[in-house]
Amino acid sequence: MKYSLGPVLYYWPKETLEDFYQQAANCSADTIYLGEAVCSKRRATKVGDWIEMAKTLAASGKQVVLSTLALVQASSELGELKRYVDNGEFLIEASDLGVVNLCAERKLPFVAGHALNCYNAVTLRLLRKQGMVRWCMPVELSRDWLANLLTQCEELGIRNQFEVEVLSYGHLPLAYSARCFTARSEDRPKDECEPAASSTQPGAACCRRRTSRCSCSMVFRP
Length: 222
What we know:
- InterPro entries: Peptidase_U32, RNA/ubiquinone_mod_enzymes.
- By secondary structure, the chain is of the alpha/beta class.
- The chain has two domains: 4-165, Alpha-Beta Barrel (TIM Barrel), CATH 3.20.20.220; 171-222, no CATH class.
- It is 33% helix and 12% strand.
- It has a seven-stranded parallel β-sheet.
- β3 (63-67), α3 (75-85) and β4 (91-94) form a beta-alpha-beta unit.
- The longest helix has 14 residues, at 143-156.
C-alpha cells in the first residue's frame, strides 16, 4: 500500500502553497498531487509555478502528479491544460474527459481523477485503453461498490492493469458547478467575480466550480 497527498482545493496564496509543499516534501506520502483543480480564475499561482513546485518535490524523491480542472468550459482553459499535459516530465490527473483526450492523443499515461464519475468496469476498460494507469474512485461510492467493481474488472481481465486509489481522510469534494455560488452571494456576475473566493471569510462557501453543499467548499486559512 502507498499513500498520496491530494491537491489543495482551497484558494491559498502562492507563498502559502510553496511553504506547504516545502513541508510536504518531508512527509511520509509516496505521491503528491498538485495543481489548480477547481477554478481557472485562480491566477495567483500559474502553470509555471505549479511545475516548479513539482520539480522541487520530485527532487525530494516523491512521485508527482499534476492535477487539472474538473470542469473545462472555455478554449482558453483548454489551452492552459495543454501546458500541463505537455510538461514533459510529470504524470497528469485527468478530472475532465477533455484532458483524457489530450493525453490519449499524445499517447501519455494519466491518472483518472475521482471527478470523472467512472462507475463501472466497462468505462474503466475504455479509460485503460486510452492510457489510464491509476483510477481514483469517486468519493461518493461505497466500499461494497468498489469490491463489486473490482470483481467486474477481474472478469474483464483488466484488474492488474491499473492502480486503485481511494480517499481515506479529508473533506469530500462532492460536486462541481459552472455557477459561482460565492459570486452569486455577493451579486457579482460570473465573469466578473475578481475572483470573489479570495476575499471570503473563514467558513464561507468559496470556489466557482463547487456547489455550496460541498463540504470542501469552505475557506481555510492556515
